[in-house]
Structure formats: structure tokens, C-alpha cells
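My hope is that you will study the protein record below before we discuss the fold together.
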Amino acid sequence: MANTTVSGATAIHGQNPQFLVETVIRNRIYESTYWKEHCFALTAESIIDKAIEVRFIGGVYGNQKPTEFLCLLLKLLQIQPEKEILVEYLRADEFKYLRALAALYIRMTFRAVDVYELLEPLLKDYRKLRLRNMSGYSLVFMDEFVYSLLTEERVCDIIMPRLAKRQVLEENGELGPRKSRLLAAMQGDSDQEDKDSSKSRKAEAEAEAGVSVEVEVAAWRGALDLAVVGVQIHETMQDMFLAVLHGQCHGLHLPVEVMQILWMWM
């Protein structure tokens, strides 16, 4: 029958894989037009084309109508692809909805250690996903969706199987410490993209604040050999002093000798 789990399928969490979807929702999927017309006889290869055509994630909407995303999830549970195939789905960076589908399936069926190792790298994926639920459409980010898979009990109207906490797995030696991007950035190991983004944000902030100070330090030859260019100031020495103080607020630090000369001129 079309709704029967593939022969020889491995039990997941001690039960038929399809039973991971609640009975009410599962029956809604079986009765849906999309399931009958598009999910019949799908294989691990042909389901890729259907996942690429998906335009939003979600569980049920309207009058308890299942989304295409949820129908394909149940189909994956029914055909139970091999682990290597699921990992390839996850690595398909150009197809974000296929990646989201694989992430949800992995969260529901894989061991806790594999779930953390495979899904945590996706927290660096910041692409937008459309989400459809009973309230309508909304936007979420891929990292937000993956984080919900790791922390929440219900995602896309599906009750998630119990997931062992990361701290417990680390204490048991089954999982290494998580690599924090924030810690790497604090240690100066952030990637070039983060640096460029930071420079861009700083430039925008200075432009909005009306800061017109542009400083270039050419070389130090003795105590007073400092080249400062592009500083827009007025003619008087008072304005010169104010401009120097303003430059110090933005990272320009002059030698003590220079500051003493300015004080003498004042």
C-alpha cells in the first residue's frame, strides 16, 4: 500500500518511523491531495526534485491542512533513506528547503551525538525561510530554525523525540566542546567576512554621526614624526585642538610631546 513503511525499515525510538508523526496529522497527510498526487512512489532520488520545489516550511495551516514540507517529511520517514544520503541532502547548500527538510528528519531519527555534530554547523547559515502556520506566513532564519530543532519540544507541529543535553554528552566524553564563533572572534580568529562586515558597519555609523575625520599614520621617526591627513578643521588653533581631541575619541592617540606643544599654543 502507498502508506506502508518500506520493507526492512529500522525501528526509530522503538517504533515505526511514520509513528513519529502524530496520528491525527498523519491521517491528514494521507488524505491530502499533495500526498496522493506528488508523493506516490517517491524514492530517495526523486524526492529531491519535490523538496527543491517547496517554497515554505511549516506543519499544518488553515483547517488542519498539512504543508508540502510536512508531507515530504512523512515520505522520508516512510522510505527511510540511508544516513549517507541524508548527509548529502544536508550539504546541498544551494537548496535551502531541502537542507531544512533533512535537518528536521535528522533531528527526529538520528542519535543525539550525530544530531549535534550535523546540525550545529548549520547555525552559521543565515538565509531566510518562509514559515506557514495557523497564523499565516512569516519569515525565519535557517540558524533560528536549526536552534529550535536543538532546543524546543515541538517544531512544525511535530513533537520532537527526547534529545540528550549537550552538557551530558560532553561529560560522558561522547561529544567535544562546541566551537563558539563569538569566542573565536574575541581571540582574533574571526573570518574575513566578519571583518569586512564590521568595517562596513563602522563606516556607516561614522557617516551617520557626521564624523569627517580620516587619519593615516605613515611612520614614526622619533617622538614627533606623525603624519595625519584628511582631517577637516578650521583655521584657529582652538579648532585644531578640538579636532585632535575628537580624533582621540575615534582611536587616534598622539604622543605626549605633541599634546604639550598644543597646550603651549593654546
Q: What stands out?
A: Confidence is low (pLDDT under 50) at residues 207-236. The beta strands are 57-58, 60-61, 65-66, 128-133, 136-141, 154-155, 158-159.
